[in-house]
Amino acid sequence: MAFFVGKPAPDVTAPAYVRGATDPQPLRLSDYRGKWLVLFFYPRDFTFVCPTEIQAFARLHGEFTAENAVVLGASTDSYYAHKAWYETDPRLTEVAYPILADTAQSVSEAFGVLLDDGAALRGTFIIDPEGIVRHAGINDLDVGRNVEETLRLLRALRTGDLCPAAWHPGTPTLTDVVAEPTAPVPVASAAIARVTDETIETVTAADRGVLILAKNDCGHCAAYQAEIKAALARGELADLAIGKLVLNEPGATDYKRGNRWLADVKDLPFTVLYRNGQIVDRFLGSRAAYLEERVRAAFGDEPELAAAA
Fold first, then answer.
1. pLDDT digit string (tens) for 14-24?
2. CA distance linking residue 91 with residue 243, whole number of Å
3. CA-CA distance, 222 to 154, in Å (whole number)?
4. The pLDDT of residue 308
5. How far apart, in whole angstroms, are the C-alpha atoms of residue 172 and residue 199?
6. Among 60, 168, 253, 273, which one is least packed by beta carbons within 10 Å?
7. b vs e for 53-77, b when ≥16 Cβ sit within 10 Å of the residue's Cβ?
C-alpha cells in the first residue's frame, strides 16, 4: 500500500467498542488530529494469532501514549462480537484502546486491507498529527506483526530527523551526526542542525538565523520540522542558518536561563528569527509557508527560492 504513504489518510467513521462504555462509540479518524494515530487491522475476533497481537499493543499501550499517540484496533466484526470477546477472554482484559467495529467494511476497504471473504488483512498504519500517512505495512493472515517494531517506527518518525536502519531512541540520527561539529551552520544546509548551549551562536549570530524551539516528544514540532526540511530539499529557504534547540534535552540550560521571554512561551514549536545576534521576530511556529512569510517581513527581502520549472 505504498500509494498511501505521504498522502492524507481516509477520513472514515465507524462505531467502536470501548471498555467501560455501555454503547457503541462513534469514532472518526479526523477527531485525532493533533496526535499521532496507530491504526491496526486484524482479521477476526475469536481467532488464534489475533489475540497475541492485541495483547502486544495492550502491553505497550502506555509507551504509545507517551509518544502522543492514540492506538485504534479494527476488524470487520460487530460491536457485540467485540464486546463478547474482549469481556470474556482473559488475555484481553488489559486492552484499554478502542476497537472499531467495521461491519460496513468501509474502513477496511478505504485502507486497502479488505479481503473477498469480508475479513481484514493485518494492516498497520501510522498517521501523523496532520492526518498524513507516514507508514503502511500489511501481513498475511498467518503471521502476526511485531508491535515493538511499530513503536520503533513511530518514535523514529516523531524525531523529524533522518534515521538510519534499525535506529532506536538514544542512538544518533543522521541529522545528529551532521550537526555534531561545532563549525558554523552552513548556508544552504540540507538539514536543520541541532544546536546546544555551546553551538547556539552559529544560528543566533548569523546574518539570517532561524532558531526553532522544540521538544522531542512534540508531534507538532516534528511535523513543522518535516515541512521545513522538505522546503530545504526543494531549494527553498536556502540562505538561512536554521537550527533547533530541544528544550527538554540537556544543552538548552543556558539559553533558557539567559532569555526570560521564554517564560512567555506556552506552546511549541516556537520560532525566533535572528540577525547578527539580535532578535528580529518571534512567533508560534506552524507551517513552513508561514515561516517564509515572516522571513520576508523580518529581513526585508525574500529567501532564495527554487527556480520555477
1. 999 999 999 99
2. 47
3. 12
4. 27
5. 18
6. 168
7. bbbbbbebbeebeebbbbbbbbbbb
